[in-house]
Design brief:
The chain is α+β, with helices and mostly antiparallel strands. Helix content is 29%, strand content 23%. Helix 4 links the parallel strand 4 (100-110) and strand 5. Helix 4 crosses helix 5.
């Protein structure tokens, strides 16, 4: 674990104001700290996805996936520097479903040496907004999912019935291709007999070792885990209905 930083700097940047330098730094953070490809990645994703190799991200691909031209005004970027070093960041997008505002975390990365220090939770908290009907994330890592639950409410705010009835409509309305193209999977959606409950097939074949360890640690901690297991190439799907407006920051990270 890293020593306590002397200088901590959080930034919230609207999509159109994310600079090329910020994208380069974010791509390097992802490439160095996100994860490694799993055993079936080259078969399922492509020859470039060699098992055991780090999953790489270029600035151009990052912009296309998280700050697309058709939705850049709906996107935001949140980052934190510890003593001048990028320690973690989030990309998120905002859209409406039946007139209700949804905020979806499209990428979250924290540098390895700064994990287990609530960095992800603090970054996520900067997305809170009293106008938001629901927050969502798809991720293979149980700790990331728990950070989202803690930042946007509590496990009591994870309404599985809401997820069951609205998840399809929410992701289909997304301007982010990675989200829109996800296929719902799990017993909650009537198509999972493999221990999955709430997840999505995103064709993302990350190495399963670290996600399995994270899931085990969450379950062993005694925390309720309603999302079930995770199949290969899938990510957990978490939708949090925030508490009443009186308990949520009114400031919007999106400037809307």
């Amino acid at each position: 674990m890293a020593t306590n930083p002397q200088h901590v700097k959080y930034q919230v940047i609207a999509g159109p104001h994310v600079t090329a330098t910020m994208l380069q730094e974010a791509a390097e953070l992802f490439s160095n700290h996100y994860g490694i490809w799993g055993p079936r990645a080259s078969e399922k994703v492509g020859a470039f996805a060699k098992s055991g190799r780090r999953i790489k991200m270029s600035p151009g691909r990052l912009r296309a996936e998280c700050l697309p031209d058709n939705a850049i005004d709906q996107c935001t970027y949140v980052r934190v520097e510890f003593d001048g070093v990028l320690a973690g960041n989030i990309f998120a997008c905002r859209w409406k479903v039946d007139g209700k505002v949804v905020v979806w975390v499209t990428q979250l990365v924290v540098a390895t040496e700064f994990r287990c220090q609530r960095v992800a939770t603090r970054l996520l908290e900067l997305l809170r907004d009293s106008e938001v009907w629901a927050f969502g994330v798809m991720n293979s890592h149980a700790h990331t999912c728990m950070a989202a639950v803690n930042a946007f409410g509590t496990m009591a705010n994870v309404n599985m019935e809401l997820t069951q009835h609205h998840a399809a409509k929410v992701i289909n309305a997304s301007p982010i291709n990675y989200v829109k193209g996800a296929k719902l999977h799990g017993s909650l959606f009537g198509n999972g007999d493999d221990g999955t409950v709430s997840s999505a097939d995103t064709n993302f074949y990350v190495d399963p070792d670290e996600p399995l360890k994270a899931l085990s640690s969450v379950r062993e901690s005694g925390v309720e885990w309603p999302f079930g297991d995770r199949a290969e190439g899938h990510e957990f799907l978490v939708i949090v209905k925030p508490p009443s407006r009186a308990h949520v920051h009114s400031r919007s990270a999106f400037g809307l």
